[in-house]
């Protein structure tokens, strides 16, 4: 089988409508595959914002400490291969095709068991488990696709869970309220596990606390049990100190911008420390954090004018973007290329960005879910912003660069799909 054929077969499993909450299909899949997800311990990461960065940090730390760590994330920016990596090396096309050839007959069997056809994400998750078992890996760091309790990844043992900040997102699937969303995400906290919990709103914190008591898990809270103890701006990122239950790690260089990135990194430190149950090697930790990369998260891809890509797709993410931009960058005028999915809180996203934006290019990304540019423009204009529309992210980015001076900045945001379009337009794909 060829890689292209495998990808086409996977893409054919994109559902027209999301199926109801069920782990039946993925449970059948891993059972037929002889449970590859049980061949390695796991750090399981959920939350509304910060999951991918936290997962990347945890994996990089594990690898620096001599463990072969598998990382499974979503979505991808350019290639499906980005979702599967071991110590920074993405799955090859040959490996992907080989694992799909093993998986395909089992998918057909499970399709016919009466639970409905296996979905795209379920199939991709099973492939990750297979590949990690075949490598083999010493630990798997698994990012939840959406929610937690009913997410396909929730068949892992989850010796350590990480719960990043929970907010109002995916309300149609997980809501309608914050308590409902928190209950879904709390579902990854397993009996006897350790959960590393970022700061939460009171209602979400109460749900997580109740889940911990219900299953006998140990919850370690940001600010109480672990924290960013110090943070200073540095060239190309920031210097942070992280306090954990077992140590304080000082003068760690993190090549990411923003307080939210520092706190995500601290969660990764606390998570790996919880997994190995000992203080970390400071030199290995220092090396690991200096190597962390998070494409599409405050990613600088151009200068004069400055061009930054960020996948903020909800109000909390947009607020974090706004704060980090003001802290880490200088500009004369800020031009925003904005394309948002139609089911997102458009007024909330625009409202968070509006105070620092001088001009907005409202556009659409290359997905059927993208909101109409005229709707985006209308919301931005209602906030007093100078707004133009463009038919695509590439066209909007080209227009913004043409109209910007060398001292200006251009931020492309609203969705990781928007970031992916920008990367293709810039020849970074």
The stretches of 5 or more residues where confidence is low (pLDDT under 50) are none
CATH architecture of the largest domain: 3-Layer(aba) Sandwich
N-to-C span: 24 Å
Fraction of residues in β-strands: 15-25%
**Overall domain count:** 2
Number of helices: 15
Could you give the count of β-strands? 17
| Helix percentage | 40-55%
Q: Give the biggest sheet.
A: 8 strands, mixed
Main-sheet strand order equals 4-3-2-5-1-6-7-8
Q: Name the assembly state.
A: single chain
CATH top level label of the largest domain? Alpha Beta
Whole-number mean pLDDT: 96
Structural class: alpha/beta
CATH fold group of the largest domain: UDP-N-acetylmuramoyl-L-alanine:D-glutamate ligase
Rough outline = globular
The CATH fourth-level homologous superfamily of the largest domain: Mur-like, catalytic domain
Please tell me how large the radius of gyration is. Answer: 21 Å
Descriptive overview:
- With 429 residues, this protein is an alpha/beta fold.
- The chain has two domains: 3-290, 3-Layer(aba) Sandwich (UDP-N-acetylmuramoyl-L-alanine:D-glutamate ligase), CATH 3.40.1190.10; 299-425, Mur ligase, C-terminal domain (Protein-Tyrosine Phosphatase, Chain A, Alpha-Beta Complex), CATH 3.90.190.
- It has 15 helices and 17 strands.
- The strands form three sheets. Strands 4-3-2-5-1-6-7-8 form an eight-stranded mixed β-sheet, sandwiched between helices. The protein has a six-stranded mixed β-sheet with strand order 12-13-17-14-15-16. It has a three-stranded antiparallel β-sheet with strand order 9-10-11.
- Helix 4 crosses helix 5.
- The protein is globular, with a radius of gyration of 21 Å.
């Amino acid at each position: 089988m060829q890689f292209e054929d495998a990808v086409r077969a996977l893409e054919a499993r994109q559902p027209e409508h999301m199926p109801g909450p069920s782990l039946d299909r993925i449970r059948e899949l891993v059972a037929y595959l002889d449970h590859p997800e049980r061949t390695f311990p796991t750090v399981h990461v959920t939350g509304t914002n910060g999951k991918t960065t936290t997962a990347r940090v945890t994996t990089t730390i594990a690898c620096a400490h001599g463990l072969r760590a598998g990382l499974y994330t979503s979505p991808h920016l350019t290639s499906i291969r980005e979702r599967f990596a071991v110590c920074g090396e993405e799955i090859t096309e040959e490996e992907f095709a080989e694992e799909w050839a093993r998986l395909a007959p089992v998918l057909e069997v499970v399709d016919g068991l009466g639970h409905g056809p296996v979905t795209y994400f379920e199939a991709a998750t099973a492939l990750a488990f297979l590949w990690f078992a075949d490598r083999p890996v010493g630990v798997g760091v698994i990012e939840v696709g959406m929610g937690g309790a009913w997410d396909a990844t929730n068949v892992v043992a989850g010796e350590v869970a990480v719960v990043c900040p929970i907010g109002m997102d995916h309300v149609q699937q997980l809501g309608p309220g914050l308590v409902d969303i928190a209950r879904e995400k709390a579902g990854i906290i397993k009996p006897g596990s350790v959960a590393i919990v970022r700061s939460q709103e009171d209602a979400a914190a109460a749900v997580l606390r109740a889940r911990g008591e219900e299953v006998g898990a140990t919850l370690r809270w940001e600010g109480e049990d672990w924290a960013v103890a110090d943070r200073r701006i540095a060239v190309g990122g920031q210097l942070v100190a992280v306090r954990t239950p077992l140590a304080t790690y000082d003068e760690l260089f993190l090549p990411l911008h923003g307080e939210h990135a520092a706190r995500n990194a601290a969660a990764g430190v606390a998570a790996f420390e919880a997994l190995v149950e000992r203080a970390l090697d400071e030199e290995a930790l220092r090396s690991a954090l200096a190597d962390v990369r998070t494409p599409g998260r405050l990613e600088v891809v151009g200068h004069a004018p400055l061009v930054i890509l960020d996948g903020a797709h909800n109000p909390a993410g947009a607020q974090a973007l706004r704060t980090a931009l003001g802290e880490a960058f200088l500009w004369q005028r800020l031009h925003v290329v904005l394309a948002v999915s139609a089911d997102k809180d458009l007024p909330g996203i625009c409202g968070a960005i509006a105070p620092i934006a001088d001009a907005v290019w409202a556009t659409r990304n290359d997905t059927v879910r993208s909101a109409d540019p005229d709707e985006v423009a209308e919301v931005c204009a209602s906030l007093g912003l100078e707004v133009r529309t463009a038919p695509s992210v590439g066209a909007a980015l080209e227009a913004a660069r043409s109209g910007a001076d060398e001292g200006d900045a251009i931020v492309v945001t609203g969705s990781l799909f928007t970031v992916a379009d920008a990367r293709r337009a810039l020849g970074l794909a």
